[in-house]
Task: structure prediction
Amino acid sequence: MFTRTDQLAGNPQMVKLPFYCNLFILWRFIEELIAGLNYFNMKKITFLLAGFLLFNYTCFCCTIVSCARNGQVFAAGNEDDYLSTLYARVWFNPPTNGHYGMVSFGLPDLQAQTIMNEYGLFVDFTAQYSINPSKFNIQHPYYGDLFFEILSTCKNVKEALAFLKDHQYAYSSQALLADAEGNSVIVNVEANTIKEGDYQVNTNFNICDLKKGVSDRRYNIAKEMLSGHANLSVGYFRDILNRTHQEGNLTTLYSYVFDIKKGLIYVYFFHNFDNAWVIDIKKELKKDYRLENLADHFPTSYAYETLIQKDPGYKKEQVLAEIYTKGADNVITKYLSDTSLYSTMLEVGLQLVKDAWNQQGNGGMWLYWFGLPGGYSVQHFTDSRLNAAQRIFTSLLQRRAPDIKLKNFMIEIEAYINLVQGNTKEAKYLYEQASASQNDAYPLSYNRAKEMLREIGMNN
Result:
């Protein structure tokens, strides 16, 4: 697994990202927030930060394979993460004007980790610890949701590579693209490595170093199994995933086998390979947009159930589930009355905004949240989840915030909610409040507010 906004290349000033690539400042930001929020449980702080930073999740391990043999085409992968991230989502985006239909998998921040579109173009990512994008001369960097854009507009690897010529990958991770024609390529900031032979494997080392003899154990296991020239089947790839999955503090949260030509996805949850949820892509994309919890499609697991009850995000997920099943009004009233749930309700409000944007943005990530340039191009829309989130933030702001920076952060998010719903005057007032003093705001929040004020000034 990996989050694509992990490390940027090039000069950040050129793309109006004045500090987001600076690890020192980001970690000072973490220290600031932790120092100012003794009110919160430390685990809650960590959970909230996971959604706040541009780097979001630290990048961890994954195993991804693709293979085309005897007229069949498959892709498969394990999505691994530390136990601090136990919740997975799946969302279905039917085709719209200018966007192909897609099925995406990811975590609550709703950056797609794994995607396949209606034409069978597939992508997944691995973390890379030895790739530093700043060491490369990238002529045409793309600072945004690059592969989501590719799968929205490209049908195969050939079209994707054509797109990448003028929209270069500028992050420190590594992506494997495969298509229904049997082509695949591994993409990183150094090179595009076209598949040689009938299979390709992507794990957590720079694929360009393979010629130097570099590899890892999971890569070698997968390669050994794939080089056996066995007939391809779901069971064959399930065995590969089973033999390369991880358990313990770094664990495989979910796994999948894509039968690309047939448009079928076999999903396995929490390294249990006895139960598969089968998704027929063509059938599902004929339905409306949906965002679902992946765990809801699998039998209850005592191990997973016990684990999530200890998780700092457990209460937030409970509240969200109630909102989506019982309606927002009564549920929000009930939980806002409990003053001990201040941080939980803040997290709920943020998640509601992310969920609303995911649908509005055709399944793409919320670029504004990460301070990326495309996030400042405002799309006006209404959504009941925005209203629910605004009610939460308004209520929390009426109380004494544990920290002035946290207060201004909530004001900034409330400004955004007002702006996308067309309340520009109120949004401007709130953004001015949120950015009145740089010393009283988190750097990312302050910069977003200032950028939005510039946008409002240019458009009014």
In short: The domain at 313-458 is CATH 1.25.40 (Serine Threonine Protein Phosphatase 5, Tetratricopeptide repeat). The chain is about 40% helix and 20% strand. The radius of gyration is 22 Å.
